[in-house]
Amino acid sequence: MKDLRQCLNDRGRITAKLPEDELMSSRAHGFSLVEVLIITGLAMLLAAALLPRLLNSRIAANEATAIANVDIITSAQESYKTAYPGIGYADSLSRLAGNCDLRQCRPTAEHACLIDCHLQEGVLQPRGGYFYALSAANPAGAGPNSTYVAAAAAETAHKTGDHDFCAVEDGKLRWHTPAAAGSAGTITHSLCQRLAVMP
Description:
This protein is α+β, with helices and mostly antiparallel strands. The chain has one domain (45-197). It is built from five helices and five strands, in the order ααααββββαβ. Strands 1-2-3-4-5 form a five-stranded antiparallel sheet. β3 (164-168) and β4 (173-176) form a beta hairpin. The longest helix has 51 residues, at 33-83. The protein is elongated and about 100 Å long. The mean pLDDT is 86.
């Protein structure tokens, strides 16, 4: 116990002998203006280098989602045509989707429960940076719908997506680079058939 008291007293004497300025170096008071400006400049350079990469990765993610959604719609169209041969292909996303207000989806010709119920909202408001559209028709004028076009158009060209995507009844995904942002509803069946097929 005596050794412990002696140690504490010695420590107090050593601390008391040192002046306060020696205990706190000049670094403990903060950074100089030059140091702050250098750090700020480096942070700005780093942000300028990374920002385009972040935007490109966001565009790539939006496009991957749009491709997947058009593919899902294409698969759902085949299922719908099989389930409702008197109607043929569905003429709107709401026919393929379930009813979001219901806890359990019960398939009908009006709401077949084949795609996510929120995907149909992409007609009026963007979903993941893309607008969606679906239309179907019978070129003969009567009878079940035998053709359709499912389309996804970027909300803002070169910001939310660089390409528009579409598919028709052959199931091949097609794409093009739009000159400006457009509506998914402007991609018609004949326009989609003329576009390049994705590899």
